[in-house]
Design a protein that fits this description.
Layout (H helix, E strand, L loop, with lengths): L8 E5 L8 H14 L4 E5 L5 H5 L12 H5 L5 H8 L1 E2 L5 E4 L8 H4 L9 H6 L8 E5 L6 H9 L2 E7 L2 H4 L2 H12 L8 E8 L4 H14 L3 E7 L3 H7 L4 H4 L4 H15 L1
Helix pairs in contact: 1-13
Amino acid sequence: MQDAARKARILAVANQKGGVGKTTTSVTLTAALARLGKKVLIIDIDPHACASVHLRFYPDEQAATINDIFTCPDDDWPAIWKKIRYAHEGQPFEVVPASIRLAELETDLKGRKGKGAILQQALGAIINDYDFIVLDCPPHVGILLVNALVACDMLVIPIQTDFLALHGLKLLFDTIKILNKVLPSPVCYRALATMYDRRAKACNRVLELLHMKMGDRMFKTIIGMDTRFRDASAMGRVIYEIDPETRGAKEYEDLAREILSL
């Protein structure tokens, strides 16, 4: 029986720079939370559909996707949600796949009032169905990222422990600053150090700088380098399906527990 008091926490995973572990974080965190007994939905709002493909939901094969939520009349949201939520074979979580048509939303929604809050309002129809909803966001500022930031309870920012990755943060924080001027409460965020190699001096220096700049806005959990993530992606699976005991799998379980404690 569904817990009448349940109301999903919405986590948006975003960074302006690609290659920082954004989709790996979205997918693996979703699976980790589900393994801890939470009911979880992952929604791919990136037109590149990397999370969808990672989970074997290929955009050209899906009759309905998250794009339909943005383009349908508000009254149709409950019916659309029923059509676009798919169970991931062998895993205790659900998936809403992306569409390449998401790239056209800037044009499709031109002139629509309140277009930055469409996702927040639409999620109201399913907010009590889950413990967590994870949003895999596009790697650029636009209407989709704005929708995610407005809707989320926490923004998770994966940051590769590499000096170049630090430069990708300014645009994201500029967007947050602008939104905070109009939102009723500031966007809550935490940064997650990813692709960490403790043997590399540069990684250790970047990690030190991140802690200096972000302070308690950093997750205590650090995600190290693990080639098994690449293996899992190539197989269209999450890491827990191929090697649940690997270091990376354990670290994302630590992250899930840390989020539960916040």
